[in-house]
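Progress report, Aim 2. The chain analyzed during this reporting quarter is listed below.
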Amino acid sequence: MESQNPTAAKPASQERWCLVNTQSGREQIASLHLSLQGYRPFVPTSWCSIRHARKIRTVRVAYFPGYLFVPLDLDRDRWRPIDGTVGVLRLVKANGRPLPAPAGLVETLLSMTDPTGALDLVGARLAPGQSARIIRGPFADQLVTIESLKSGDRVRVLLQLMSNTVPVEVSRQDLAL
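Predicted structure tokens for the chain:
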């Protein structure tokens, strides 16, 4: 179950992004049920490699575990039903009203999503000589040095394996600074 990427559905002028606290690990379920009620939730996600029983799985996980964002016009929208939605613990509030996220925060996160809807936090900040960490694939959690940027989304990195430096090409999305 994938969250919908609301990049095309940006909030109107009176709408502000509000933070919703979800049950642990149920961000996607909460997102689905909020969508069914007509809200446009945004769950920032990233890729993560999980090692278990000698196998590596790459999965999308919530970048902010236990949270998602919903655009609301507090004067127009009915926001009280959000607290009773499946997978939701509470809408984050101050003085009994939803507390908007800082202006520009969610918009920046939306602008940093890749075509799959996952956050691309590395983007154009890669440069030869920088250190980075591989975040998915067979070399997950290994520190590397960026050797060169290739055409498309490929990056040539230097990986330390068994006291040797080995050049490896990886996707930009597989790196974190």
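The longest helix spans residues 27-36. The CA atoms of residues 34 and 41 lie 7 Å apart. These observations will guide the mutagenesis work planned for the next reporting period.
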